[in-house]
Amino acid sequence: MKKTSKSANLYAVNDLRYEDIAVSECKDDEVLVEVKSCGVCGSDIDRVYKKGTYHFPTVIGHEFSGKVVYDPKNELTGKKAVIFPLLPCFGCESCKKGSYATCENYDYYGSRRDGGMTEYIAVKRWNIVLMPDNLSYDEGAMCEPVSVARHAISKLNIEKGDNVFISGAGPIGLIAGGWAKQQGAENVYYIDIDERKIEFAKTLGFFEYTEDVTIDCVLEGTGHSDAIKACLEAVKPQGRVVLMGNPSGDVTMTQNTYWCILRKELKLSGTWNSSYNDVVNDWKESLKAMSEGKLDVKPLITHRFPLSQCNEALEMMKNRTEFYNKVILKMNEDEN
Ligand SMILES: [Zn+2]
Ligand SMILES: [Zn+2]
After folding, report:
1. CA distance 120 to 38
2. For residue 40, which ligand has an atom nearest its CA?
3. Cα-to-centroid distance, 223 and ligand 2 (Å)
4. Are 132 and 309 spatial neighbours (Cβ–Cβ below 8 Å)?
5. Which of 60, 64, 147, 271 is deepest in the core (most CB within 10 A)?
6. Measured between alpha carbons, how far is 30 from 287 in angstroms, rounded to an integer?
7. Which residues touch 291 (CB under 8 Å, ≥6 apart)?
8. Any idea which ligand is nearest the CA of 326?
9. Which residues contact 96 (CB under 8 A, 6 or more apart)?
C-alpha cells in the first residue's frame, strides 16, 4: 500500500502546493479510495484565491470519484465509487430527519477536512455511492454538481410544458437545464454576463432569454443582485423561484425589484447542496440518469489537467484565459 499521495494542498490564500502528503490511515468505518477524477468547482477558485479553507493546510476538492482499493470489511474493494462530500453530525434536528444538507454542525471533504485532489484518501463508508459500471470516472466526478442541480430543480415543481429561466450558464446551471427538460420543461432560457457561455448553452439545445417569452419558473444560479433582479422580473405572476447561487458579498435589491415578489405573489425557495437519504437521494438518482443516458454531462467537460498542473488549471479558470465549462483534474492520465 502506498504511504504517500500527491495532492493539491492549500497552505494559504494564493498558496496551493502540489506535494506528497501521508496517506491517512483507514479506520474501521472508512475505505481507501484511489481517486481518478476530481472536478474543480467555482467555490474552489474562491477558496484558493480569496477565502481560504477553514484551516491550513487543507487538500481541496469535493467533486471526486475513484476506485475503492482497500476496505477493512472487504465488501467494496475494487468497486467504482463517488463520494458524497458532506459529513453530517447525525445529532442535530436536521440530521435526525435525514436532511443532512441543513446539518448545523457538518464536516466537509475538501473545505473543512482534506478532500479529493489527491491520489489516495480514506473516506467514510457512509459517504460512498457505488457507480454503475458504464459510467466513466469523469462522469462520476460530475455527480456532485449533477446532484446539486437536481436538488434545486426538484424544488421548482416543473409542470409539463413550462418555460424555465436560469441565470448563470456554468456547469450547474447547464446541468439544471438538462434536469428541467427531464422533468417536463418545454424550453430553458439563460442569461449570463459571459456571451460565450450563452453560445455554449445554445449548442446544448437551450436558448438565450428574450423578454417576449413567458417564464413559468426560475432558477437563480449566480448569487448576484443584478441576476436576482432579472429573475424576479422575468417570471410570470404566481411563478416559482428557486435561489441557488451562493453570493460572494451582500445581496441588495430596489423597492421595485422587491415588489415583484409581492405583486406577482411569487413562490420563493432556497436550495442548498443535495438530498442524501433513503427516501430522496439525489446522488443515486443522478448516477441512474447518467447511466441510462437521460442526462449527458460529457459535453460539459471542456478541460482535463493532470493533478500536477492544478495551479495552471485554477489560474486559467480564475483569469478566464480560455473558455471553459467543467474542468477536471486527473490523478492518472490514461483513465477517463
Ligand atoms: Zn462544488
Ligand atoms: Zn447535523
Report:
1. 12
2. 1
3. 25
4. no
5. 64
6. 22
7. 132, 134, 135
8. 1
9. none
- The grid cell for 7 is 495532492
Ligand nearest the Cα of residue 116 is: 1
85 C-alpha vs ligand 2 centroid, how far in Å? 14
For residue 177, the one-letter residue type is G
Distance CA 215, CA 168 (A): 16
The kind and range of the H/E element at 311 are: helix 310-319
Domains of the chain and CATH, by start: 4-146+274-330 (3.90.180.10), 156-270 (3.40.50.720)
In tens digits, what is the pLDDT along the chain, a chain of 336 residues?
779 999 999 999 999 999 999 998 999 999 999 999 999 999 999 999 999 999 999 999 999 999 999 999 999 999 999 999 999 999 999 999 999 999 999 999 999 999 999 999 999 999 999 999 999 999 999 999 999 999 999 999 999 999 999 999 999 999 999 999 999 999 999 999 999 999 999 999 999 999 999 999 999 999 999 999 999 999 999 999 999 999 988 999 999 999 999 999 999 999 999 999 999 999 999 999 999 999 999 999 999 999 999 999 999 999 999 999 999 999 986 666
Cα end-to-end distance, the chain, whole Å? 23
Nearest ligand to residue 94 Cα: 2
CA of residue 3 to ligand 1 center, whole Å? 28
DSSP state of 127: G
Strand boundaries in the chain, DSSP class E? 4-12, 15-22, 30-40, 58-59, 63-70, 80-83, 86-87, 107-108, 120-124, 128-130, 163-167, 187-191, 207-208, 215-220, 235-243, 267-270, 301-306, 326-330
CA 132 to CA 134: how far, in whole Å? 6
Task: For residue 12, give the H/E element and its range.
Answer: strand 4-12
Report which residue type is found at 8: A
Q: Which ligand is nearest to the CA of 109?
A: 1
Å from CA of 125 to ligand 2 middle: 18
Tell me how far the alpha carbon of residue 94 lies from the centroid of ligand 2, in angstroms. Answer: 6
